[in-house]
Model the fold of this input.
Amino acid sequence: MFKLIVTFLRSLLLPRSSLHLEILALRHQLSVLQRTSKRPRLRMSDRILWTWLLRLWPDWRSCLVIVKPETVVRWHRLGFRLYWRWLSRPKRTGRPKVLLEVRELIRRISRDNSTWGVPRIRDELALLGIQVAESTIRKYRIRSKKPPSQTWRSFLKNHVKDIAAIDFFNVHTIDFRVLYCFIVLRHDRRKLIHFNVSAHPTASWTAQQIIEAFPFDEAPKYMIRDRDGIYGNLFRHRLKHMGIEEVVIAPRSPWQNPFVERVIGTIRRDCLDHVIVLNEAHLVRILSEYINYYHNARPHQSLDHNSPLPRAVEALEQGHVVAEPILGGLHHRYRRAA
Done:
């Protein structure tokens, strides 16, 4: 296109005889081209040029050699349609686009709260300073194929404060005697609320431990236990009198009482595997010191990496870090001291 414009301007400056000779040479070349090439390839710029000449030059048909006049007219009509299509293009209308952060928040709220409907999500967003229409929430929220229901994790969290578990584990002394340790664990904060040791546990002794573990009105709603024969009629009657419902696990299925089994494993790995128990009093003293450390210092993953009795975060300004040895230096508790 630029080359043609330059040629046109140059022709205005040439003498008339030179111009006629140039036209003759160009027409001869076009005739040769027409004989040797059946269908020359045209670009979009060529079509635009002839459409422009159609509007400005009345005698445009006399110079057509490569294409027919009907082809140029078709190009002109096509350009007319494209021009008016460009003028009639739709403008950007409608509501403003919802921010990605808001869309992700709608999905997160609907995923975390399966029982919430659209109005409830809208009200929650309004309290967070986000104003959106119900149709927008309906569009972006996560739809569940099943009827809305709480998850098992939510169900267990709502009832964990009413659940306790009990179990026995044995410890060998230096003179090869066997001592039996009875523990009671609350599920909500993994707290060992009671333990005792006996060389000859009985059903009445075990029932008495339940009374000592839950004085007044602190008894849980459910008690998980295994099928050990020591939990006889006296033990079951004592639980029933205290308003505690027994949950007996299946035979040889300790995984159904996982929390107390995990605590027993922790006591062995952290404490009993590193000491030699002399007698019953020695075992009680060791377990008392370790359980105090377990409650007040030892962090737990299931408790947001804190201890059963939560520890406050100590700031740097409170002083240097000092260590308090536990069980003769087997463990240490660290705190800041001025």
The two ends are 87 Å apart (CA to CA).
